[in-house]
Amino acid sequence: MINLKINGLTTSVEKGTSLLEAARFLGFPIPTLCHMDGLKPYGACRLCVVEIGEGSKAKLVTSCTYHAEEGLKVRTATERVVRARRMILELLLASTPQSKIIQDLASEHHVMQQRFRQEHEDCILCGLCVRMCKEQMAAGAIGFRGRGTERSIGTPFDVKSEDCRLCGGCIYVCPACQLRCTYNNPDQAICGGCANLAAPCIEELKYNDLMCYMKPCVACEIVEYEKEKQIKIK
Amino acid sequence: MRKQNSIVEFQDFQDLLISDISPDIPTIIISSGTCGQASGAGSLIRVVKRELIAQQQTQNIRLRITGCHGFCEMEPSLLIMPRGTFYPKVKLKKVPMIISAIANNETISELLWSDPKNGGSIEKQVDIPFFKYQSRTILSRNEKTDPIRIFSYVRHGGYKQFVRLLEKGDHDYILEEVKKSGIRGRGGAGFPAGVKWEMLAAKKNTNGKFLVCNADEGDPGAYMDRSVLEGNPHSIIEAMLIGALATGATQGVFYVRQEYPLAIKHLLIALRQARELGVLGENILDTDFSFDLDLVKGAGAFVCGEETALIKSIEGKMGEPRQRPPYPIEMGINGSPTVINNVETWANIPIIFELGAENFAKVGTKGNSGTKIFSLVGKIRNTGLVEVPMGMTIEEIIHAIGGGAVGSKSIKAVQTGGPSGGCIPTSLFNLPIDYDSLSQAGSIMGSGGMIVMDENSCMIDVAKYFMNFLKDESCGKCYTCRKGTQRMYEILDDFSNGLGTPEKLELLIELAVVVRDTTMCGLGQTASNPVLSTIRYFPDEYNAHIESKMCPGGVCKELITYSINDNCNGCQVCVRACPEEAITGKKKEMHLIDLDKCIKCGSCVSVCQFDAVETA
Ligand SMILES: Cc1cc2nc3c(=O)[nH]c(=O)nc-3n(C[C@H](O)[C@H](O)[C@H](O)COP(=O)(O)O)c2cc1C
Ligand code: FES
Fold first, then answer.
1. Which domains occur in chain B, in start order?
2. What are phi and psi of B414, to 5 degrees?
3. pLDDT tens-digit series, residues B574-589
4. What number is the ipTM of this complex?
């Protein structure tokens, strides 16, 4: 067991426990976007930063990827931490304002405005979908491509992946919430699962033993509706 | 090549080669690294060879083709040993003259280097100020060795230290010496190499341990690693062999960026030759010591120089840094313990054993021993690679070695450390160059880029340039690095377009601090340096851009206008140079710029001989 102090409280955890798990176990809230139980920690969104070390050696680290160390002193809500989190949320709001999850986090942290040039992106590259696809669905159909401002998520050469089983897992975990709604805009969809409405619920014969993650997306109903409309027009 | 089958056999062979040196025979040395070849060293070599045959001097004059010597601005150059005569910027037409002069042991004074300050010419390379004030322990070896001939390296004492240590067989002695020498990593962070090696030596791993030579060198304007690899690849191989002896590593990797084709070629030749000679591979010189080296080509991502990203790249994965700890020394290539050192760090290792650790540590200052190579570029008279003892001041490098500013302009700042570094103003030029002083001043040593800027540079433009580089080169994993660099670029771009406000400056500082705090790897943690250091040392320039919408350096196009003053004597050079035909005026009459047509390309400023075009 490893002994450490979080916000002054002593606790002991098993080797390999992340600071996030330890802090949450004690009930200290830490906001996260790219973390999900059951998926490997990745450390992309940086929202979960906490402060460790003392004096001039004090620094911020992401609690989801940092493992507990003997004698570590962790502070989860110092001024420095809060300032960093608010700036990250401001950056998120400036680029992905339409996400309900991000809006809620921002208002929880009293971020009331964003001072950058407004953008409308629908991906924060948190990598949840990539990890979901690889680790839980064992498909690995999508991945990261490019670097810097060119970085994006998709399949190699944008060719529809043969490994994709249209399970919808990627859409289910997305915190930017955009992909659920791109069913009629195939260019923007990641796996095309939602765009290709030959999804589990539609072609029952083929996929009837698959679980549909898209319960609330009502894509299937919309298709039915569209079909009916077509028939009416004819 | 005959394989050497024992330590004694190698030593006899080396003695044989050394006895073959006849130091009195004149030798023409042509520096033909990438810089030399770009300025025409290839043709020069051909013409020199032809002329040697034509003048029937092949028995009396030797020719050696080597890597870069450092004075890249003067390429293609000829160095005549043992006299030490240096002919810069050699024209092919002059080669016959030079060769007959060498044959008669004369020099041609018109072709020598002439001092732009007083016009006097200097014959010997060592007397030229650019070389005189340097301590060229690493770079001077480039002159002595032909990089693609292993015999040339062995003849000048190559592999001697490795074989001596192999014979001695004492790991702890090697580790002690490296620690005693006090050498710190030259890749940027300055971690003591001896300590790193000791940690690797202490590791027990049945799957093998790795040594890596980091030659990714992606900083704009820095090329010292390239020159060392091109000019003396065997010295790095020898260094890694010594490292393997000390740490028990079984496998080594060169990580070279693809943009260095000549370095890759020379390395591949060197590796093959070393294997053929029997100093690399299984059971080296019939001992039970085995070590082999591989070469991995990087695809030119700056971030792959970062050690954890480099490991992923070697493993064939996407070059993305990961959280440290665990450090590579715990979990490196394929999970095995790994030591990564910079090319220049490795290049120092054979020198430590040649000079002895104590003598090595005498050079430089306490805690910062040895020499460091800088690539001195920008608005300075002598550009090239300079190797100086640590602790020399910036002033000395710029004025004594670099020869000061070009023309009548005065120098404003130097940028050290590439995109991760900062700008140091003239008021701090008496700062000694070492790891600690530079980081206190808000910059870093980095791998050794040194860009000199004069009055005609705009600090906002400089910060913007590096931010543009970083926003494309960030791996993109950390949100604050990817978006932070992009947003910082955006704000700086606003400043240079006259859209700056005091609130935006505040936001920029706030953002820069958060980016430094919340990113994972060295790239993001240092990405704010160019911004914060320019704000710290040049607040007036930021104010000029924000408050008065003016660019004092005359660089930001949106904020300047050109006009012609009464220095103009009507020579019409600018009229012809203007691509937009915006300048009108008859011969011998004052010219006029039509500001509606002017695209602010600056062509008129650069062609005018009379300082008649003003920027305001
Ligand atoms: C963004 C980034 C780029 C780097 N690029 C290089 C490089 O091009 N060459 C290099 O030797 N080290 C580079 N480094 C430093 C390496 O991570 C590492 O510290 C170094 O290779 C260790 O060698 P040393 O101990 O000999 O300095 C870079 C670091 C960062 C954060
Ligand atoms: S939750 Fe830790 S970085 Fe995203």
1. 24-81+85-123 (3.40.30.10), 144-360 (3.40.50.11540), 370-454 (3.10.20.600), 459-548 (1.20.1440.230), 561-615 (3.30.70.20)
2. -120, 145
3. 999 999 889 988 888 8
4. 0.89
